[in-house]
Amino acid sequence: AAKAETSAPALSFQELAKSITEDQQVAAGYKAQVVVSWGDALHGGMDAFDPLLLTPAEQERRFGYNNDFIGFMPLPVGSQASDHGLLCVNHEYTNTELMFSGLKGESAKDLISEDQAKVEMAAHGHTIVEVKKGKDGWAVVADSRYNRRISFLSTVCEATGPAAGHARLKTKADPSGRKIVGTLNNCAGGKTPWGTILTAEENIHQYFAGNPEGTPEARNHKRMGIENKPEYGWGRFFERMDVSKEPNEPNRFGWLVEIDPYDPSSTPKKRTALGRFKHEAGTCVVNPDGRVTVYTGDDERFEYLYRFVTKGKFVPNDRKANMGLLDEGTLSVARFDANGTVSWLPLIHGKGKLTAENGFASQADVVIEARRASELLGATPMDRPEDVETNPVNGRVYVMLTNNTKRKPEQVDAANPRANNAYGHILELTAPGGEGKAANHTADTYQWDILLLAGDPSKPDVGARYHPDVTSNGWLAAPDNCTFDNHGRLWIATDQGGDQAKRGVPDGIYATQVDGAQRALTKFFYAVPRDAEMCGPEFTPDGKTLFVSVQHPGEGSTYDKPSTRFPRFKADMPPLPSVVAITKKDGGEIGG
Ligand code: FEO
Ligand code: CA
Ligand code: CA
Ligand code: CA
Known about the structure:
With 592 residues, the protein is mainly β. Helices cover 9% and strands 30% of the residues. Bound molecules: MU-OXO-diiron (FEO) and calcium ion (CA) (3 copies). Residues 480, 495, 533 line the site of one calcium ion (CA).
């Protein structure tokens, strides 16, 4: 449980007022600077960005759309440098009507051309870009040898682990079942202790057209939400995006993908041992015995929280020795009991109900249909498990549960205690063994507690729970991503979607202590521009820069009539999803 005291300094910044504006806002005494935006050139000799002239080939050489996860990877590799490194950034999805002129809302997907579809495919995936901090702040290093786009359109990834090469991963274009073109809907992610990136493939269902009924994968696709209701127009042009023609293609997405950002020629690896679902994140922690635990959520209402523990042990200072660690180990799913215990239920073929009788002929079937396997084991359906992070100071694990307005009163349980949960909550898990590095994230059971129940604490019917001193500006809604500073203080990014306009509450960054007298006293630090969401909070090792992702500014409006033109505010430029660097004006640590 939480400690009564903490050595972490108080969060001394003066919090922002809740107001939605066309520009970003940060607490007084801090500076928020745009580092890289959609369309920025990643290689030398390229023209300035003109969205009206964008081609698929160009997009593959420029920063992608809707940046989400940010990993700061110091240069040189293995150092703790805080003024030079690689930004490894996910590009989750595209907003068709904001990328192209003349398209509107719902019909945009039916109106785009094949070339525009290819631009969208190229704008998905990941960017690795070298950045340096100078006297004018952070800047991209143009034409760095590290700069690289990984896209859905063209980057060949390799499947590894139990589902690699399995019949259910084979397609006409790839009879090997191992060579997968692209990575898709890259949401949050994580960094491994050996200096690679994990990128989480999340809402992969929304891209696939065609009726899955009558295909051998019908039940599987239904569970993943693939039901001939695509939100993109790609299925009109590409056979692989139509499940009636290529029923196995979706089985090649929904994985955690490992990328080595320090080797620009490396092949991204889809680590199938960690299961297939709508992965939100992949947070690693080294255990006292050297094995590595990866936490990952499945972001959908009533889906589950997962953990993977490697079989092998982490070898410090030897990157190569660790590169296959994520291919062997045990995937487990969480069951939360009312007595405050969380049990990790192993998803192992042949054990319990995970047998051929139930449609699991091998571990490949178990990982491909991890959701169905988890349900059979009695895992607890959660209120949309998004980011999961371990606190480097107290060793506890924090789970962001965004919301779940579909939970009915009879479906309430101790760990998901509110029906019609419109605001979300944060759980705190305590592994046995001790604090910090002593915590044993391989144990079969942990204890769990509630850090906070989000929403407006002044409205009794909301049922919010925080520190009693939380202000009208400091309460939050829809916790999505998070990170910790070096003092173990929690920084939360929120994503209310369209609710922020309705509530008049902007998304942004909220910070809180998790131990001591100010536990769960959240304070509002940064606000996104209109109709954006906040993703990717990431500190440099010195805690003096906080990188954040401004995703989909202007969502819900159009290229020709956007609700904001952040960050350039020029009449001929639409809003641009951007990575922002927040620093303290006096050069000190973020948060005080
Ligand atoms: Fe892509 Fe669950 O956020
Ligand atoms: Ca998210
Ligand atoms: Ca995070
Ligand atoms: Ca989100």
